[in-house]
Each structure stands twice: as structure tokens, then as C-alpha cells.
Sequence to fold (165 residues):
Amino acid sequence: MQNGQVRMATDPLDAKGVVEAGRSEARAWNGIAPGTHRPHAFAGLGLRAAEQFYVDGLGFGLMQRFAPSALFVAAGGYHHHLGMNTWNSLGAPPTPPDAVGLRHLTIQLPDEAACARGTTRAGAGFPVRAAAGAWWLTDPASGAGVILVAGRTPPAVEDLAAAAA
Fold:
């Protein structure tokens, strides 16, 4: 920690090596397997709105701010569960509805009381739908669905989307 924030770097990625490693796989990509748990996600969006929603609303801690282009937030002091930046999105037109991208994010909270606190704070002024034992909000910065579940394995997103519609 430095000045109350986690120290991080933005080192270059060996994109060519990643592509070559993917080509060496014997099987074709068919998407992420159902039930896959991702410990963190990244999204490009409006940072002030994202901070208000995830930090002020849902209660994540602000772990690092690369002003003015990125924030990293987490629960429990982890370096980051969510990274948000404007590196490719600042000034860009909205993403078309049929484009590849983040559609929904499921956040598993310890209990229903934590879900209720999150929906009360983050949902202020925004619709909150309860369905299939979960709470569905919309991230005002990105438009992605944010699904809060209480201390259990989340149901399939398709089931939640159908129930919340």
C-alpha cells in the first residue's frame, strides 16, 4: 500500500504470444464454460458514475485510481475485483447491442442483508428487480446488468434474465 492505495503497474502484454498460445490449442473456442467463476472483471465506462455505483453504492473499496483514466475496486482489501478504465472508450460511440462485451456481472455477497444494503444504496434512483432469489440492477455507467446474489452459487444468468424481464 502507498498513500492508502494498492501499488500496481500497467506493463505491456505479449499479445502475439497470447494469440500463438491460443492457436496451439487443439480445440476451438466455444465460450466460457457454464459455472465458471471469474475473480475479477474489467470494463470500460464512465469512471465517476462507476465509482458512485460500485464504491458509494455497492460498498466496494477504492483500491487504486489512475487519474483520470482508471479505477480498481475490491472487497475485503483484495488488490482489485473490478477494474474500470476509459483507455479505449473515452469519446467513443456507444457499443452496438449486438457487439461482443460484458452484458451481466454477478456479485456474490455474504447474505441477504448485504444485498439489501447494496440495492438500497446503488439502486437509488434506478430500477431494482428481484427475481429467482437475486437482485438485478443496471450499472448506470456501462449499461451492464449487475446481479446480486446472497451467499450461494448464483443461478444461470439466462434464468435470471428471463425472470427479471
